[in-house]
């Protein structure tokens, strides 16, 4: 059974940083493209960042230069370092296993339960 368990969401002030983590199990993590997808209330889910099995990374335009996705295949963990957070980054963040390299929520094959990030002063 595929399991993705996120952690690290919190309340943070604008300009602050957070690191999200995702523990994966039940599938071949090292051979899977993985991503972070977020959902702002009232809006569709949107891809944030993707990392392919060969470590090639893709970022949404709105997070380029601020967020960094990484993976540890030995520990089967996916991470998202978020710096310079903005009010508009407030969302539920999901760890996701992808069926390919497209940073598109329609390519997700498995979802985590999500972790809430709230940016507020």
In short, what is this structure?
0% of the residues lie in helices and 50% in strands. It is mainly β and 121 residues long.
SSE diagram, text form:
Elements (H helix, E strand, L loop, with lengths): L2 E5 L3 E2 L5 E8 L7 E7 L6 E6 L5 E3 L7 E6 L4 E6 L8 E8 L9 E4 L3 E5 L2
Parallel strand pairs: 2-11
Antiparallel strand pairs: 1-3, 3-8, 4-5, 4-9, 5-6, 7-8, 9-10, 9-11
Average pLDDT for all residues = 97
Portion of residues within helices? under 10%
- Spatial separation of the terminal alpha carbons: 40 Å
Write down the secondary-structure element order: EEEEEEEEEEE
The DSSP helix count reads 0
The rough form would be described as globular
User: How much of the residues is beta strand, in percent?
Assistant: over 45%
Question: Regarding quaternary structure, how should these chains be classified?
Answer: single chain
Number of strands: 11
